[in-house]
Amino acid sequence: PFDHPEYGPVEMGGWGKFGSRVNPRFMSMEVFHRNMAFTLYHADQMPLVKMGESRVESLGGDMYRVQVDIRNERAIPTITTRAMTTRAVRPDILSVEGGVEVVSAGWVQDKNRPGKTALVDQKELDRILVRNGIPGRTTRTIEYLVRGRGNMEVTYSTVKGGTVSTTVRVQESFPADRLVGGRKGRSDASGIGHAEDRRLPLLARLPCPCLSAGGDRPVSVRPAAAPCASWPARRHTPAPGAVARCTPHR
To answer: Which range has the worst mean pLDDT, 1-10, 84-93, 147-156, 192-201?
Structure first.
């Protein structure tokens, strides 16, 4: 008992909910159902990590800025505050592998607004320890400053949320006006607009109007075996015996 200064000895504590009282039998199913529903919902809200979008920007001098979104789609964070304080679980690990050199790394505060990047103060930037994890229903954006080109594999590993990874292709992008229709990465059935064609001028990737609708037999041009001089961007050789009735292309 506790010796209260005013009331004297006081018995402290109490009985458990089911210590002295058991629900009537007809009410037990309600208790079981509510307990089951909470348990399943709690399990469904365990952290679930997914990789989001990635962006690459060329800075010149073989330097690139790479941003990768990492999101937690559930309500429970990958590392709770209690687990972080007591160090009950290891930190999340954000690693990078590939043919690029990581010069610096940091967390973007808001990817939709320009602002400062919180730099990561660790020696091994290709293996970052994320001690506070990813909060529930939150997307965090990591930004790398890398040197070199090639494939860059970004992996995020957690104890409770699993391990996910994505591969980012670090290479120089090309202006939109040099691509067909001004759209990067789009192509039609003939393959125009693929990555291997992006360095060519626009006219060099178009079919010559000297060709027929089928695209395999010349119907205009000059003496046999003479190249079509009016379409210098892509020269072709007519079939022997073709009718010499070539007209200038406009």
So the answer is: 192-201
Per-residue pLDDT reduced to its tens digit, 174-198: 544 444 443 333 333 333 333 333 3
* Dist CA 123 CA 117 (whole Å): 17
> Considering the entire predicted model, what is its pTM?
0.62
Full DSSP string of 77-112: -SS-HHHHHHT-SPPEEEEEEES-EEEEEEEES-TT
DSSP-derived pairing of the beta strands 101-108 and 49-60: unpaired
The whole-angstrom separation of Cα 124 and Cα 198 is: 36
149: CB partners within 8 A, 6+ apart: 62, 64, 99, 100, 170, 171, 172
With DSSP H G I counted as helix, E B as strand and the rest as coil, what are the percentages for the chain, rounded to 5?
Answer: 15, 30, 55
Show Cβ contacts of residue 160 under 8 Å, excluding neighbours closer than 6 positions. 46, 47, 76, 78, 79, 89
